[in-house]
Specification:
The chain is an alpha/beta fold and about 400 residues long. It is about 40% helix and about 15% strand. The radius of gyration is 23 Å and the shape is globular.
Length: about 400
């Protein structure tokens, strides 16, 4: 049944999935509304760090992969996978606009018996109560039969140990046949595929995974603040606690949680929890702690320098995590904004990001009143900072 695949969204989730499908012989069309991304992909230039250009060029040369800004390939596809962002809106609430736009576009083109899989992160009941009726009401002709499944993405950018092929894959369907089809599809290139009892179980499992990380990272950031008051190194504490062979998992401090998943997915869960009258206060507290972390380090900077007005400050690393260029939800943004609000002269260095908000990365030198380490990439030469006062938000030195 599976031979022609269309994947909507060619970012950190959609592109690795497209390459994996193309490598096992499927004909894959990667759809993305960003013309620049599509142009680069068709030239064999990868747009994310985890996919080398050679891997992309290989599947292009076999004729198994191409990218497009148009949805017309869906008319020939037997499987359509939606990997679009589901961010938060300006009020910090779930934003399904990209997902609904993709569903509206694909619904007009799907052929009989098409398998549609949602990989975008969503709240429980979204597939059943929003996505399914939306496709039903718009599919042309209206009597076209389709199959609908949900399979949450588990992509961790720059992770050298776990990738799309060796990470267990969850699947669920609107009915048993949809679940079985999704299971067979993913099993053709992923060894460990796990069926969930319902769409809602799979949707909630994804949110639980990242809420677990969100709560624990926020907690260890509070522990880091406590340790700073005591004058002890939080990393020494974590190292000592990690010697326990059961009941403990290490998390590490930072200027705050960033990225497209960890600070976002828990809000989808807590929003749904409020809707059903079962508030998840741990998530609410973790969110508040996370949002306060940049301000905490601004206060630390002010304690070091006194008045911040006209002080020169270098922020090292503005990506949300090491060794990638992604700046979504980066805590560096709030940190820089608050430092400037207090009169500091702030610049930043990040060779992977290079340009951000109309500003460019500056050279890594120690000619500043203060250097604040936010995200340290493996290629950074911190020896260049030997004579600078340093505030290390990760306790990494």
């Amino acid at each position: 049944m599976f031979s022609n695949i269309s994947i909507i969204g060619q970012g950190y989730v959609g592109l690795p999935l497209a390459i994996a499908c193309a490598k096992v012989g499927y004909k894959v069309t990667g759809i993305d509304t960003n013309e620049l991304i599509v142009e680069k992909l068709n030239k064999g230039k990868s747009t994310i760090e985890d996919i080398p250009g050679l891997a992309l060029q290989e599947v292009i040369s076999t004729g198994n992969y191409s990218a497009s800004t148009e949805y017309k390939s869906i008319a020939e596809a037997d499987t359509v996978i939606v990997c679009v962002p589901t961010p938060l809106d300006s009020k910090n609430q779930p934003d399904l606009s990209y997902l609904l736009s993709a569903i509206n576009s694909l619904s007009k083109l799907v052929k009989e018996e098409t398998l549609i899989i949602i990989e975008s992160t969503i709240a429980p009941e979204t597939t059943r109560k929003i996505v399914f009726p939306l496709i039903q009401n718009q599919v042309e002709p209206l009597n076209t039969n389709f199959h609908l499944a949900f399979s949450p993405e588990r992509i961790d950018p720059s992770n050298q140990d776990w990738n799309i092929l060796n990470t267990p894959k969850l699947v669920a369907g609107i009915d048993e046949l949809s679940c079985e089809l999704a299971y067979k599809f993913y099993s053709s290139f992923i060894p460990n595929v796990i069926k969930c009892n319902s769409l809602e179980v799979a949707e909630t499992a994804k949110l639980l995974e990242n809420s677990f990380r969100f709560v624990n990272i926020s907690f260890v950031n509070q522990i880091a603040m406590f340790c700073n008051r005591l004058g002890i190194d939080v990393n020494d504490v974590i190292k000592a606690a990690s010697t326990k062979p059961y009941g403990f998992m290490p998390f590490y401090p930072s200027a705050g949680v960033g990225g497209h998943c960890i600070p976002v997915d828990p809000i989808y869960l807590s929003s749904k929890a409020r809707d059903v009258g079962s508030a998840l206060t741990f998530i609410d507290l973790a969110e508040r702690t996370n949002l306060e972390m940049p301000l905490y380090f601004v206060e630390r900077a002010q304690n070091k320098l006194g008045d911040l007005r006209d002080k020169s400050i270098l922020i090292v690393g503005v990506a949300y995590k090491p060794n990638i260029s992604d700046v979504r939800q980066t805590p560096a943004e709030s940190l820089i904004s608050e430092l400037r609000a207090r009169g500091a002269q702030v610049v930043w260095h990040d060779d992977l990001v290079n340009e951000w908000h109309g500003e460019k990365s500056v050279a890594l030198t120690d000619n500043y009143d203060l250097v604040i380490l936010v995200t340290i990439h493996s290629n950074m030469d911190l020896g260049m900072l030997v004579d600078a006062p340093i505030l290390d938000t990760r306790n990494s030195l």
